[in-house]
Design goal:
- With 310 residues, the protein is an alpha/beta fold.
- It has 12 helices and 12 strands.
- The strands form 2 sheets. Strands 1, 2, 3, 4, 7, 8, 9, 10, 11 and 12 form a 10-stranded mixed sheet that branches.
- The radius of gyration is 18 Å and the shape is globular.
């Protein structure tokens, strides 16, 4: 199929000049089912982080579908690295701040943001730009690098990981949002929404020593799931993840993927990534494992998918 015909069939002709690859075969794998009240998966391209998020939340039924007045809300971005936003090692600060504002606008009592960082947490919070963005939007940053902030929970559906210490902010909040950045990762090949859950866990050494892919699938069985998974692909780290070495590792892709289903949204995002750099879904083993554990589905052709170009 010619590129122009392919994009016309998607209703996106002329819409992807910012993607430095040939075509968008990733989206061709996503076939919308018969329309229901709200999409199961929303894929957006071409706008600012704030504009794409506003459109996605609107398509999902509005922020009031997820946040009620007086609730405590937690947002879990990726803030793992002492890197500026341009390196795409962490979630885009504009995206995080936009969600904070939406939640407060819906009447949330407070909006808390944290990550169990890999680099020094204070430097990661500051240099990622997320700390200032969150505070300017009215949210509150919480540290994630103190074991006293974690409590042990059981994972009855876990295969290898049977229990884990989870950050108390997740356990005590009314609702929480999972907001990863899409990027290459040397260990599990890709980090998206399920891999981002490692940032709510205290002891991650167990993951790396005991079948990393299975442990990622296991932590995704946590009973208290995010109300929405919002995958930031405004800038995408294509190589040398999870930290990156230089700006040559980064492609400006201007995309966003949103779903309640972690397996589906990760599958869609990785298929999108495959247009930047080849990434076989079979290599990202935790996708299949999580599907087998009934976390979600990789068969996004059966879902109601909404594609939007801003």
């Amino acid at each position: 199929m010619k590129r122009r015909d392919f994009l016309r069939n998607l209703g996106m002709a002329g819409a992807v000049s910012f993607i430095p690859v040939q075509g968008l075969q990733a989206i061709s794998h996503i076939a919308s089912a018969e329309q229901s009240a709200h999409p199961d998966l929303i894929a957006l391209m071409g706008g600012s982080p704030a504009a794409m998020l506003a459109k996605a939340i609107g398509e999902a039924g509005g922020i009031g579908q997820f946040v009620k007045k007086g609730q405590t809300v937690v947002i879990k971005p990726n803030i793992g690295w002492d890197k500026g936003p341009e390196y795409a090692a962490n979630t885009n600060p504009e995206l995080v701040a936009s969600l904070v504002s939406m939640c407060l606008g819906a009447g949330a009592k407070e909006v808390l943001v944290f990550d169990h960082t890999c680099d020094n947490w204070k430097l990661s919070y500051e240099h990622s730009g997320i700390e200032k963005a969150v505070q300017d939007a009215g949210g509150k940053m919480l540290p994630g690098n103190d074991e006293n902030m974690y409590r042990s929970v059981t994972l009855p559906q876990g295969v290898t990981l049977k229990q884990a210490k989870i950050h108390q902010a997740i356990l005590d909040c009314d609702v929480w949002f999972n907001m990863p950045v899409l990027k290459n990762h040397g260990g599990p090949k890709m980090t998206v929404s399920m891999k981002n859950l490692m940032g709510i866990v205290w002891d991650r050494r167990f993951f790396h020593a005991n079948n990393l892919h299975q442990c990622i699938a296991d932590i995704a069985t946590l009973q208290k799931k995010p109300v929405l998974n919002i995958v930031d692909a405004y800038r995408t780290m294509k190589t040398n993840g999870p930290q990156g070495k230089s700006l040559s590792d980064v492609v400006e892709t201007k995309a966003l993927f949103v779903s309640k289903d972690m397996v589906a949204v990760d599958t869609a995002a990785i298929r999108f990534f495959n247009q930047i750099r080849e990434m076989n879904l079979d290599e990202v083993q935790y996708l299949r494992m999580a599907q087998e554990q009934k976390v979600g589905t990789m068969d996004i052709a059966k879902l109601n998918v909404k594609r939007i170009k801003l």
